[in-house]
Amino acid sequence: MLIKTMKNYGVDSFPALTAATVQGSTETTFYVIAVYYGAVGIRRIRHTLGCALVADLAGIVASIAVCYWFFG
User: Fold this and answer.
1) Strand (E) or helix (H) holding 34
2) Does the chain have fewer CB atoms within 10 Å around its N or its C terminus?
3) Mind giving me the DSSP string for 37-62?
């Protein structure tokens, strides 16, 4: 989606900058759960997944606010 946004609107456009900021602030949730919990052998991730998705939502909202503040 990031590459499509950059191709459609251009690299220096507001949608592209917002998409890059959102992706940079929220992309590691499932990686951390898979790698770190898999290495330790933890099977129950219910509470971790919920907290991580809430943190992702907070990261998305914060990155949109920061983009409006810096680039808007």
Assistant:
1) none
2) N
3) IHHHT----HHHHHHHHHHHHHHHHH
Token pair recorded at residue 51: 């907290």
What's CA 3's distance to the chain center, in Å? Answer: 15
Predicted local distance difference test score (pLDDT) of residue 54? 92
Domain that includes residue 9, residue range: 2-71
Is 90 exceeded by the pLDDT of residue 33? Answer: no
Which residues have C-beta within 8 Å of that of residue 14, sequence separation ≥ 6?
67, 71, 72
Q: How many domains does the chain have?
A: 1
Q: Does the global pTM surpass 0.85?
A: no
68: helix, strand or coil:
helix
- How many angstroms separate the CA atoms of 18 and 10, rounded? 12
Q: Which of 51, 3, 2, 12 is nearest to 29 (CA)?
A: 51
